[in-house]
Design a protein that fits this description.
Order of helices and strands: HHHHHHHHHHHHHHH
CATH architecture of the domain at 188-259: Alpha Horseshoe
CATH class of the domain at 188-259: Mainly Alpha
Strand content: under 5%
Oligomer: single chain
Structural class: mainly alpha
CATH topology of the domain at 188-259: Serine Threonine Protein Phosphatase 5, Tetratricopeptide repeat
Number of strands: 0
Helix content: over 70%
Shape: globular
Largest sheet: none
Length: 259
């Protein structure tokens, strides 16, 4: 249970993590200690007591040793890369992601995370190269197409980006996010009707997806179809009955329709 809880905290703001999970640095279970060390890597030492710095350093050392014990596995090298990235040691993180890909060129998470590391360093061109290389080996990986599409958006290559996002949505229809981002890409290139069609199809698979419904509301209004916008707004209101902004929007749409 403690490990499962830690898995859900990776995206929490770093300044909130220490008071939440620092006690687990002394957990009797090794797996809990090293996962805690990964999440706390990069915590500013100047805000810690000498005792806490020692506790964190000990757990981090244990984490690194555990990954090096399995250094022939791409998953362990990718975990080490995440650890170094959290500490701000970009060169070491890059080296570990590269090591993971050498061990298993088909290990797509390493390619996606390496591309994201490059994004954070302002090196999207390098990220695109990594993702294209990975796609040569795994052309049916929707996550790779999605990551490449986002990178191409940042590089202001909308046509190429939309094609990659289309592939991601087609390969993984179970991910509402992929269809939503693809639709946003279509709309941004002036293809609003196509965007609405993509969202409507996705809504059939994911009837409660908030982003999909919000996009349908906005795109329908922009297309001059308040009736459709109202229909989607009422669907969203059934999911979010206490959303006051949504209630006001519905009232406005009804006024536009003369009701």
């Amino acid at each position: 249970m403690r490990l499962a809880a830690l898995d859900h905290l990776e995206t929490a703001p770093p300044n909130q993590l220490w008071p939440l999970i620092a006690p687990l640095l002394d957990d009797p279970v090794r797996g809990v200690r090293i996962q805690t060390a990964l999440l706390l890597a990069g915590t500013p030492s100047q805000g810690l007591s000498e005792r806490d710095r020692t506790r964190l350093a000990k757990a981090e050392k244990e984490f690194v040793a555990a990954q090096m014990l399995n250094a022939d596995r791409p998953e362990s090298r990718a975990l080490l890369a995440r650890y170094y990235a959290r500490k701000g040691e970009v060169a070491k993180a890059e080296a570990e992601y590269r090591a993971a890909l050498r061990l298993s060129p088909h290990f797509a998470p390493a390619a996606v995370n390496l591309a994201d590391l490059y994004r954070q360093s302002g090196r999207d061109q390098d990220g695109v190269a990594v993702l294209r290389e990975a796609l040569e080996l795994s052309p049916d990986d929707g996550g790779l197409h999605y990551a490449l599409g986002l990178a191409l958006v940042r590089l202001k290559k909308p046509d190429e980006a939309v094609e990659e996002l289309r592939m991601a949505a087609a390969l993984e229809p179970g991910r509402a996010r992929y269809a939503y981002v693809y639709a946003v890409g279509l709309e941004s290139t002036g293809k609003r009707a196509e965007a609405i069609a993509v969202l409507e199809e996705s809504l059939q698979r994911h009837p409660g997806d908030r982003d999909t419904l919000l996009a349908l509301i906005n795109f329908s209004r922009a297309a001059g179809d308040p009736a459709a916008a109202l229909r989607y707004a009422e669907k969203l209101a059934a999911i979010e009955p206490d959303n006051e902004g949504l209630k006001r929007m519905i009232a406005t749409l009804k006024e536009e329709l003369g009701g």
